[in-house]
Write a sequence for this structure.
């Protein structure tokens, strides 16, 4: 069918062909005196003298008309795609996406089908549960400890589990997923719960009471026990920086950030959770593990990660913070020297500094802090045994 936009050209073409036909007729039949004498009429007469001359003129005329018309004819506009055609497009895409290498969970509704066909679908990254963490399953859930929560395998995509509005480390195991929830030292004994943000399901667990030992220390520098107004301003400033470092943006990792390598070999001088008195005054409890070692002993990164903060702080002295992904952050305090910079990517076992006694410390030791879901937990729970430490 010729569309409306093509009509003027068809009309012009017919007129040109008619003119040509009339001219041929006139040149053939009218007496020479009545024939208009031009060069192109002479040429037409010459061509007409051949056996198929008239046909050749009409044919060439037609070709010229058509070739002039084609570039200016607008292509037909695509009509609106009917609904069932759209469904067909989805079907084709679905078959292409569902490859065995990239399993996608079953979705009951069409909305979900369309959702997972979005081109921005991130690649599937899953960290499997290492066998060395299985012992955590039997650890009592206490303040400063870890709650082991078994989740059914709703999908191959790691579930988004929240505890007190903070995202929790989730690892894959054969029969589903395990959430490893860091419990704050200030947590009250009783029923606690996590929520799966995708399904809305709650998983509750019990936190038992734990009485940590008391430690009394004598500090020569009285300002480290009772800071002056200037110190308090500095402490306030540093606290903000440290809280930001511990709240690093969520990074999915393909390998489990846990277990951790103990950063230095030495005597455990102060365990996690101690209720502390400095010069007879009660201060905040001990939220890390102290490992005594000679001044200058190299300190290594407990796992691969990114240095998120370094600095010289009032309480923890020269400190390094490393983000290992999925909410796992480690801190290394009282260092004598720091050999890494903020934003630097470090390997597991890489030297990051040396043991010192900077900040509020009675002697050279490493204060090792481990944070899960922005909660400082007992590092002893997630460290590899000392025998596994590579001598550096
Ligand atoms: Zn400490």
């Amino acid at each position: 069918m010729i569309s409306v936009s093509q009509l003027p050209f068809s009309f012009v073409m017919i007129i040109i062909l008619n003119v040509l036909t009339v001219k041929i007729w006139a040149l053939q039949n009218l007496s020479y005196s009545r024939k208009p004498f031009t060069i192109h009429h002479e040429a037409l007469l010459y061509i007409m003298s051949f056996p198929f001359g008239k046909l050749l003129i009409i044919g060439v005329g037609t070709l010229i008309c058509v070739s002039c018309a084609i570039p200016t004819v607008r292509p037909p506009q695509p009509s609106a795609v009917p609904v069932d055609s759209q469904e067909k497009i989805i079907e084709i895409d679905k078959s292409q996406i569902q490859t065995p290498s990239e399993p996608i969970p079953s979705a009951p509704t069409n909305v979900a089908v369309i959702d997972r066909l979005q081109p921005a679908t991130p690649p599937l990254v899953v960290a499997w549960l290492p066998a060395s963490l299985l012992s955590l399953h039997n650890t009592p859930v206490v303040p400063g400890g870890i709650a082991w929560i078994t989740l059914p395998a709703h999908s191959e995509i790691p579930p988004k589990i929240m505890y007190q509005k903070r995202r929790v480390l989730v690892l894959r195991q054969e029969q589903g997923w395990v959430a490893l929830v860091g419990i704050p030292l200030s947590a009250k004994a009783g029923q606690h719960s996590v929520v799966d943000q995708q399904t809305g399901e709650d998983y509750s667990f019990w936190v038992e009471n734990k009485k940590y030992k008391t430690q009394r220390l004598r500090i020569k520098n009285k300002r480290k026990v009772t800071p002056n107004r200037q110190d308090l301003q500095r402490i306030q400033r540093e606290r903000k920086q440290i809280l930001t470092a511990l709240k690093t943006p969520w990074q999915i990792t393909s390998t489990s950030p846990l277990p951790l390598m103990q950063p230095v070999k030495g005597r455990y001088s102060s365990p996690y959770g101690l209720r502390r008195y400095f010069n007879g005054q009660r201060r905040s409890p001990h939220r890390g593990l102290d490992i005594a070692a000679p001044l200058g002993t190299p300190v290594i990164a407990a796992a691969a990660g990114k240095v998120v903060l370094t600095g010289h702080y009032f309480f923890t002295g020269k400190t390094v913070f490393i983000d290992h992904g999925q909410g796992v952050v480690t801190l290394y305090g009282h260092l004598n020297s720091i050999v890494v910079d903020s934003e630097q990517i470090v390997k597991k076992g890489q030297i990051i500094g040396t043991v010192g006694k900077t900040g509020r410390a009675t002697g050279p030791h490493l204060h090792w802090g481990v944070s899960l879901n922005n909660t400082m937990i007992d590092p002893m729970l997630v460290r590899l045994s000392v025998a596994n430490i590579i001598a550096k």
User: Anything to note?
Assistant: The chain has six helices and 20 strands. The CA atoms of residues 3 and 77 lie 11 Å apart.
